[in-house]
Amino acid sequence: MKYCIYHSSYPVVFSSCGNLVSDNGFIHPKRNIDSFVLLLIRKGTLYITQDEDEYILHDNEFLILFPHTLHYGTRRSDGYLSYYWTHFYISDPSYQITDIFHYEDSLLPFQNILQVLQGHVVLPETGTVSSAGHSQLLFLQLMDIACREHYKDTYKCHYGLSLLLLEFCSESLSAFILQDMDIPPRLSECIDWIQLHYNQPLTASDIANRFNYNPAYLTSLFKKYTGYSLTHYINHARISAAKNLLTNQDQTIEAIAKQCGFTDTKYFYRIFKKEEHITPSEYRNAFHHKKLVL
After folding, report:
1. Most buried of 112, 181, 207, 255, CB within 10 angstroms?
2. What would the pLDDT profile of 217-241 be if each residue is shown by its tens digit?
3. Which CATH number fits domain 3-180: 3.30.450.90, 3.40.50.720, 1.10.287.370, 2.60.120.280?
């Protein structure tokens, strides 16, 4: 897989962004353009080919289309499709599109390669981001900024997109970094399980029993490898999911709290304020003027 590498001191140059929505039968046009394009699938399946490599992208998966490289839709989508997109340029004159695992013929572990590239942004050509993570939220924020700036390429848009790409870099490479840290396989399974079941009633004791850990030992492992206690990690996963849901004006805050695993709305408010330093209502209001470009 190819990676785009550029120095973080250079902000990317925003061109445009939006949200494509199709009820059925969408096929991406055949193009060879001079800008980068980031696609993030919200719902549905996109069939697309870049440089003769075919990709089938599903929910929460992304693809970066490289400049001066032919890309086109392989087949029409089946049913509903929605994805975020943004066109941009990289201002770093020394940016590279390369296979990072052969970067300067290095045989170093992945984490050591990233240390060599410290200060750089490393963007995989394709990957997956968490539905409960920050990337999707920052994409919404970028579209909100672009709308308020009347879709001009302002510095707010440039730096908003730069932040989005930094988060994509962090989220998409985290799996490689954890793998290189020799995280215990059972703990890795536990982390993945929590990410999938955060909306269910969870306690440290129940999770420890499920994965055959002593509760105190499991908490110490979480602290070592994630920086959070087990209870804090569960709440963090729930709040991350709630932040994405709060951008939807149709659901009540009480319903969102319940959907994310909080049985007590007052407790949800308290944890949210502790994590984000604002209330859920204040957070939602920040996206009140969000407008998607179709």
Report:
1. 207
2. 999 999 888 888 899 999 988 998 8
3. 2.60.120.280
Placement of tokens 């990233």 in the chain: 114
Residue of 129, 198, 145 lying closest to 14 (CA atoms) = 145
Q: How far apart are CA 284 and CA 194, in angstroms?
A: 25
How high is the pLDDT of residue 14?
A: 94
In terms of pTM, does the model score above 0.70? no
Domain assignments of the chain as residue spans, ordered by start: 3-180, 185-285
Q: How far apart are CA 26 and CA 206, in angstroms?
A: 45
Query: What is the CATH code of the structural domain delimited by 185-285?
Result: 1.10.10.60
